[in-house]
Write a structure and sequence with these properties.
Length: 271
């Protein structure tokens, strides 16, 4: 199992080889998930571009270290990972809180970012009251008590009706996350606001929303696209909050088209 030590924190990751000249794409996962959510996407894109997936601090098999207090803690880890692998330019794909991490990284080190894909995320997610309520509930009763409600916003009714085994697996993934990592990241999202910095993003950006996302609804994702100069917005039909699991074919088609639209992508793929 591949691990790398970042500031004394062991981060679990997978590096997938691809066309050497292509920009690496780094996938940053959502709250309460681990790198396995990208399996179907990585399988479809294998060989086309280098890809890095990893478990955020306090999630999956990664350490939590001194804890998570802000999005900056996750940005610190991503920054160190990129330096560790020697990447000079990257495409960042951030899902939900991962999209906030991507925005935070761009604000800190814009020279390393070729482009951004921001999926089911926003410049600001939720309110202090909603996050404090969730944190209090989870601290008192654990993640299990909110799991069914989370599944309803993660996935569409069709997914619930027809993909019961996958739904159960995703629920297990959520409830088995380390409580300190989950709570700390809830606090990080609660306190994050990228409204001003989003206006200063100056690289090609694709914003993606699931049409039935109950966590970051399409209009919220669209509002992020409106803040970012020149950003595109795309809607995935039949998807909730995690389209990489529910609609990987549609998501991969968007990724391929977007990467091909970049100067490097046009040269590599001829699209």
């Amino acid at each position: 199992m591949p691990f790398v030590s970042i500031g004394g924190i062991a981060l679990h990751h997978r590096l997938i080889a691809g066309t050497a000249a292509a920009r690496p794409i780094i996938f940053i996962n959502s709250l309460g998930t681990d790198l396995r959510i990208w399996d179907d996407v990585v399988a479809r894109l294998a060989g086309e571009m280098p890809m890095l997936v990893y478990d955020k601090r306090g999630h999956g098999l990664s350490d939590i270290g001194s804890g998570v207090r802000s999005i900056d803690d996750h940005v610190d880890d991503l920054s160190a990972l990129i330096d560790c692998f020697g990447f000079q330019k990257v495409v960042l794909f951030g899902l939900s809180v991962g999209g906030m991490v991507a925005q935070g990284f761009y604000a800190r080190r814009p020279e390393l970012v070729e482009a951004l894909i921001l999926s089911d995320t926003a410049h600001k997610i939720g309110t202090a009251e909603s996050w404090n309520s969730r944190i209090a509930t989870v601290e008192r009763d654990g993640i299990e008590v909110i799991a069914d409600g989370i599944m309803k916003v993660w996935f569409t009714p069709d997914f619930h009706a027809n993909r019961a085994a996958e739904l159960a697996g995703c629920r297990n993934m959520l409830t088995r996350q380390a409580l300190p990592g989950y709570i700390g990241t809830c606090m990080a999202v609660r306190d994050a606001d990228f409204t001003d910095s989003a206006r200063r993003i100056a690289v090609p950006t694709l914003c993606i929303g699931g049409d039935q996302d109950g966590s970051t609804p399409p209009n919220l994702v669209r509002s992020l696209a409106h803040l970012i100069p020149g950003a595109r917005f795309e809607l995935i039909r039949g998807a909730g909050h995690i389209p990489c699991i529910e609609q990987p074919d549609a998501l991969v088609a968007l990724i391929r088209a977007f990467v091909a639209s970049l100067p490097e992508g046009k040269h590599l793929h001829g699209r």
